[in-house]
Each structure stands twice: as C-alpha cells, then as structure tokens.
C-alpha cells in the first residue's frame, strides 16, 4: 500500500498537437489538474467532517467550561465548576452504572452469538441467502420501531413475553420497573437489532480465511468447535477487535431504547432505573443547560476512550490469539 | 444417515448438519417474529390485546388504524420529508464518495495513504457527543426545524468514501484510465466518462445502505426538528410517546413506516448484504 509507484498517468502527456505559444500554458494547466484535483476530490469529506463532526466535538469542551444556556446571550466562564457538580451528582453515577450494565448485558452475549452464527453460515448451505436476509432484517428496522414493538412484547399485562412466561408459572413481570429487568429488556432490543449485522461482518472476515487451513485441520481430526477456536478466531482477530471497539462505542451511546421504552421518558423510568449517559445529556439539553450537558459529554468521551482502550487490550491479548 | 454432501473436505455428519439448519431456522424465526407480531397488533383493536392467548394472526382493522395514525400525526408530511432527506443524502453520498474513492483508489498524490487512514479513523469518533454545539450551529444558521439540518451534515461520510475506495481499487482497471488520458481527458473527464459508469453497481448498493440508515435516523432529527414538521421516525416517536397504552396506534404507524424499507430490503437484500460484507473486509 505504501509504495510510491512512479506516476504512470502523469507520464502520458495529452496527445493533441498544440501551438508552441500555448504549450507552456497547457502544460501548467495539466500539471495543476493532475496534482491538484485529487485534493479537491477528497476535500468535501474532510471539510464536512471538520465543520459538522470535529468542530462541534471540540467546541463541546469550550462550552463545558461555561455557565451556558440558550436563553441568555451571556456565557460566564466558570472553569471546571460543571465537572465538580457533575462528579458529585448521584444521577450522573447512576447513569454511568446503567450505561455500563446495559453495555455489558447487550454486547458480550451478542458478539459471542454473532461469531457462532457466522461460523454456522460459513459452510455450504442451502438457502444461504434466505438466512442472511432474515439475519439482517432486524437491522433494517428503525430503532424507534424496534422499541415500540418490544415495549409491546415486554408489556406487563398483555405482552407476549409475559404470556409465554405465565405458561411456566411466572406471572406479571413488570419489565420496566426493576433495574435488572429493564436492563435485560433494553439489552434484548439492542441484541435483536445488531447480532445479525455483526454476524455478517464476521462471516465476511471468515470467508477470507484460507480453506487449506481447515482441510489440514480436518485431516488432523479437529472437530468444528476446535477449528472455530484454533483457526477461525485467531485468523479473524483484526475484525473481532474492530467489531468490539465499534460495538463498545455504540453501546456507550445508547439513547433511543431507554428513551422510548414503555413511554417517552427523558429520566429513563420513574426512578431513573434505565437512564443512560446519553439520555442524561439529553435531559440536561432539554433543560437548556448546555454547559452542564457538555461537561457530561466530555466525561462520556473519556469513558468511551477508556472502555474502548481496555476492550482493545483485552481482545488483543485474549485467548487463542496468534500474537 | 442422510446422504453426505461431499463438498471438498467439509464432510460433516448428518446430525451436525441438521443442528445447523435448526439453529439458523430458529434465528430466522426470532428475527421475523417481532415484525410479524407488530403487523398482527397493528391490524387489531386495543381490546384484542387483552385476549388470552394473545392474537396470533392479523385482523381486519389495519386501515382503520392507519387512518387514526394520519389523524394523530402529520404522517404524509413525515413520509415526504423522509423521502426528501433520505433521497437527497443518498444521491449526494453516492456522488461525493465515488469522487473521493476515485482519488484514493486511482490517483497518486502526496499524503494519500495518511488521508485514507484518517478517513477510516474518523469512523471511530463518537460525533453524537458534539450534538450540543451542532445544535447551536444550526440555530446560528437558522436551519433548526428545516430539512437542511439533516441533509447538509450528511452529504458525505467516511464509510461511503472507504466503501467506494475499496470497490474502485479492485474493480476499475487502471488501463481504462490510461486510455482516457491518451485520448486527452482531464481528471474530471476521466471521473465523468470512465469512473462514474464503472462505479454504478457499488454506488447503487451504497445508495441503498445510505437511504436506509438516514431513513432510520432518530436522535438528531428529534433534537433539531419540530413535531409539526417531522420525519417518519420523529412522527413515530410522537405516536409512541403521546398515547402510552395505545399500542395498536403505535404499531400501525411503525408498520407503515417500516414496511416500505423491509419490502425493498427483501427484494434487494442479496445485493445489500453483499455490499455490507464487502465494506467489512479491510485491506
């Protein structure tokens, strides 16, 4: 990738004969075109990302150091006061706990299941396309639709899940009232929406693993599970790391599921039992307390970097690695 | 024992094979069940939900419920807005991503690899955390409550650029570009006459992926739009929030807002999945 091959295209000058006086002019225009246009072509992305992605993120840090509301034109610089308030705020630590709890409950089983499903799909099967499409269908469903549907399924009185549980003698679970039950319900929604998608990402990586490795292992008598552990997982480790990181970043920012679960509640339930950090930001955003909300954003950014970093090290050093 | 399929060395026992099919069928079942059940509820009335056992087949109330959806929220306007936003974003992303992908895949320039790496790295940046200044920016631009706030920031994204780079470096023969140069094409001429036609299959997949993800966007539209001029997702969340126990209404809206996408996906799913899997394999 990094080789600087001689510029093959620049070596081919325009063929059309040009009058000598205009040749220099033409040559400069040509040089400008060849050297300059690549930058012009990639510029839209970088400009747009700087303006609407990076700048707002960085500006959040500046806002977080102020007493800043949309209602007044004056913003008072208050240093780290917002952060001091934040660290002493029980709601903040509650939201942090909920975020981590939902994150672990949804991500860990999801990725294990996704790897296993990819493993099952990574062999000659009938109806391969049908299985892939049904796997991805939940991901095509919007998050709002997912929560509305699952809120009904998890309903206390008329929900289908409680109806099934009642067949086993468990009656009337109020899913959105408890801490653990609400986290389980929200994690189910996240898992339902993302397991298939991640399975397909893993499957794509698995298909790039050389067949000969499996053939040799089969001759040596290794069964499917051993092959999964000793060949597949080490070989697709870069993809696993990538998916773990992106899933972690996603899980840390969960918002729509707790916001819409049961009813539209920016506190995440009556006792804040499922208010996540994103939702806590949104709550303070709707109170127009932009300075405080920005401080939460920055704390959350630190958490994301921290958790993603820990997961990266953990995954890299994990069992069965070639490294 | 059933007949073993002798696919090179992947011989496995009939039992293991049956277990594979059983598992995948179960997964397919649980993927479809919630969607199916939402159609069931959407075509009933609220009283039917109290039945034990719960209703398992669709009823005849769907259109009456849909009419209630249109009475409760400006759903036609929401559909129009969603098509407008998703459509224009998809077209812009296809265009700008192909342009940048062409540069990254086929043109030589200083800093190319570093810039490509930077592009991929931006996918990891949690931009949702910048939402407050982004909102303030929209207030300054007087774009709050308008579709500009959804369209302009989304015109091109890192995934699209990376996706088209992958495709073009693999599928576009460099000889074709050289031939174009010999014929006196400028770089822009090459893009227009050679690259764009060649990029069409991948661009179409990218367009569909983009359309679906923009259609499903929720948080940013919720923040920046008003309930009077919403997208489909914002309208759905209004339905779901205002009438806590009116599941039928909520699910009728959900079915209406999801069905078009699910149908398109069921028809073109093979191409879309191929696209997602290609985008996943990194060089």
TrEMBL record, chain A:
<dbReference type="InterPro" id="IPR035906">
    <property type="entry name" value="MetI-like_sf"/>
</dbReference>
<feature type="transmembrane region" description="Helical">
    <location>
        <begin position="133"/>
        <end position="154"/>
    </location>
</feature>
<feature type="transmembrane region" description="Helical">
    <location>
        <begin position="239"/>
        <end position="256"/>
    </location>
</feature>
<keyword id="KW-0472">Membrane</keyword>
<dbReference type="GO" id="GO:0055085">
    <property type="term" value="P:transmembrane transport"/>
</dbReference>
<feature type="transmembrane region" description="Helical">
    <location>
        <begin position="100"/>
        <end position="121"/>
    </location>
</feature>
<dbReference type="Pfam" id="PF00528">
    <property type="entry name" value="BPD_transp_1"/>
</dbReference>
<dbReference type="InterPro" id="IPR000515">
    <property type="entry name" value="MetI-like"/>
</dbReference>
<dbReference type="GO" id="GO:0005886">
    <property type="term" value="C:plasma membrane"/>
</dbReference>
<keyword id="KW-0812">Transmembrane</keyword>
<protein>
    <submittedName>
        <fullName>Cellobiose ABC transporter membrane protein</fullName>
    </submittedName>
</protein>
<keyword id="KW-1133">Transmembrane helix</keyword>
<feature type="transmembrane region" description="Helical">
    <location>
        <begin position="290"/>
        <end position="314"/>
    </location>
</feature>
<feature type="transmembrane region" description="Helical">
    <location>
        <begin position="39"/>
        <end position="62"/>
    </location>
</feature>
<dbReference type="InterPro" id="IPR051393">
    <property type="entry name" value="ABC_transporter_permease"/>
</dbReference>
<comment type="similarity">
    <text>Belongs to the binding-protein-dependent transport system permease family.</text>
</comment>
<keyword id="KW-1003">Cell membrane</keyword>
<feature type="domain" description="ABC transmembrane type-1">
    <location>
        <begin position="96"/>
        <end position="311"/>
    </location>
</feature>
<keyword id="KW-0813">Transport</keyword>
TrEMBL record, chain B:
<protein>
    <submittedName>
        <fullName>Cellobiose ABC transporter membrane protein</fullName>
    </submittedName>
</protein>
<dbReference type="GO" id="GO:0055085">
    <property type="term" value="P:transmembrane transport"/>
</dbReference>
<dbReference type="InterPro" id="IPR000515">
    <property type="entry name" value="MetI-like"/>
</dbReference>
<feature type="transmembrane region" description="Helical">
    <location>
        <begin position="21"/>
        <end position="39"/>
    </location>
</feature>
<feature type="transmembrane region" description="Helical">
    <location>
        <begin position="247"/>
        <end position="268"/>
    </location>
</feature>
<keyword id="KW-0472">Membrane</keyword>
<feature type="transmembrane region" description="Helical">
    <location>
        <begin position="147"/>
        <end position="169"/>
    </location>
</feature>
<keyword id="KW-1003">Cell membrane</keyword>
<dbReference type="Pfam" id="PF00528">
    <property type="entry name" value="BPD_transp_1"/>
</dbReference>
<feature type="transmembrane region" description="Helical">
    <location>
        <begin position="114"/>
        <end position="135"/>
    </location>
</feature>
<feature type="transmembrane region" description="Helical">
    <location>
        <begin position="190"/>
        <end position="215"/>
    </location>
</feature>
<comment type="similarity">
    <text>Belongs to the binding-protein-dependent transport system permease family.</text>
</comment>
<keyword id="KW-1133">Transmembrane helix</keyword>
<dbReference type="InterPro" id="IPR035906">
    <property type="entry name" value="MetI-like_sf"/>
</dbReference>
<keyword id="KW-0812">Transmembrane</keyword>
<dbReference type="GO" id="GO:0005886">
    <property type="term" value="C:plasma membrane"/>
</dbReference>
<keyword id="KW-0813">Transport</keyword>
<feature type="transmembrane region" description="Helical">
    <location>
        <begin position="75"/>
        <end position="102"/>
    </location>
</feature>
<feature type="domain" description="ABC transmembrane type-1">
    <location>
        <begin position="79"/>
        <end position="268"/>
    </location>
</feature>
């Amino acid at each position: 990738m990094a080789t600087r091959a001689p510029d093959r295209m620049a070596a081919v000058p325009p063929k059309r004969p040009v009058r000598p006086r205009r040749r220099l002019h033409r040559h400069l225009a040509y040089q400008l075109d060849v050297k300059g246009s690549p930058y012009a072509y990639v510029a839209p992305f970088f400009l747009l990302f700087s303006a609407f992605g990076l700048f707002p993120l960085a500006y959040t840090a500046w806002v977080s150091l102020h007493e800043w509301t949309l209602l007044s034109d004056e913003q008072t610089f208050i240093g780290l006061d917002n952060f001091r308030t934040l660290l002493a705020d029980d709601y903040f630590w509650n939201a942090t706990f909920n975020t981590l709890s939902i994150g672990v409950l949804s991500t860990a089983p999801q990725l294990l299941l996704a790897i296993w499903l990819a493993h099952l799909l990574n062999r000659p099967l009938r109806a391969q396309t049908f299985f892939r499409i049904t796997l991805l269908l939940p991901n095509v469903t919007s998050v709002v639709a997912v929560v509305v549907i699952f809120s009904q399924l998890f309903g206390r009185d008329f929900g289908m899940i409680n109806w099934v549980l009642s067949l086993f003698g468990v009656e009337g679970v109020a899913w959105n009232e408890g801490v653990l039950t609400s986290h389980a319900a929200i994690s189910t929604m996240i898992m339902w929406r993302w397991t298939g998608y991640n399975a397909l990402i893993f499957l794509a990586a698995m298909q790039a693993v050389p067949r000969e490795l499996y053939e040799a292992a089969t001759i040596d008598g290794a069964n499917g599970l051993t092959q999964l552990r000793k060949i597949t997982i080490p070989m697709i480790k870069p993809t696993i790391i990538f998916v773990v990181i992106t899933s972690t970043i996603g899980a840390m920012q969960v918002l729509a599921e707790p916001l819409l679960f049961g009813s539209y509640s920016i506190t995440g339930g009556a006792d804040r039992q499922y208010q996540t950090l994103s939702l806590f930001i949104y709550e303070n955003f709707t109170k127009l307390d932009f300075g405080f909300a920005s401080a939460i954003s920055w704390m959350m950014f630190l958490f994301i970097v921290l958790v993603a970093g820990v997961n990266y090290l953990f995954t890299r050093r994990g069992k069965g690695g070639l490294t | 024992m059933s007949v073993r399929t002798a696919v090179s060395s992947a011989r496995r026992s009939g039992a293991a094979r049956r277990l594979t099919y059983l598992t995948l069928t179960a997964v397919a079942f649980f993927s479809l069940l919630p969607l199916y059940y939402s159609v069931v509820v959407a075509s009933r009335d609220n009283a039917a939900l109290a039945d034990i056992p719960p209703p398992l087949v669709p009823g005849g109330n769907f259109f009456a419920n849909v009419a209630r959806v249109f009475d409760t929220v400006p759903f036609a306007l929401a559909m129009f807005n969603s098509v407008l936003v998703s459509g224009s974003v998809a077209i812009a992303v296809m265009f700008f991503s192909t342009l940048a992908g062409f540069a990254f895949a086929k043109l030589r320039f200083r800093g190319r690899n570093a810039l490509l790496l930077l592009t991929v790295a931006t996918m990891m940046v949690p931009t949702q955390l910048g939402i407050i200044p982004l909102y303030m920016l929209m207030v300054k631009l007087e774009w709050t409550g308008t579709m500009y706030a959804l369209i302009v920031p989304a015109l091109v994204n890192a995934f699209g650029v990376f996706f088209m780079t992958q495709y073009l470096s693999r599928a576009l023969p460099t000889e074709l570009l050289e031939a174009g140069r010999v014929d006196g094409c400028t770089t822009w001429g090459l893009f227009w006459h050679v690259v764009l036609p060649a990029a069409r299959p991948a661009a179409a997949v990218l367009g569909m992926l983009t359309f679906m993800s923009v259609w499903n966007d929720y948080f940013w539209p919720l923040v920046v739009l008003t309930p009077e001029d919403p997208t489909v997702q914002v309208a759905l969340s209004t339905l779901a929030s205002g009438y806590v126990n009116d599941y039928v209404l909520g699910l009728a809206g959900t079915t209406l807002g999801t069905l078009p996408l699910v149908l398109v996906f069921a028809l073109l799913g093979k191409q879309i999945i191929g696209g997602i899997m290609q985008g996943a394999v990194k060089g």
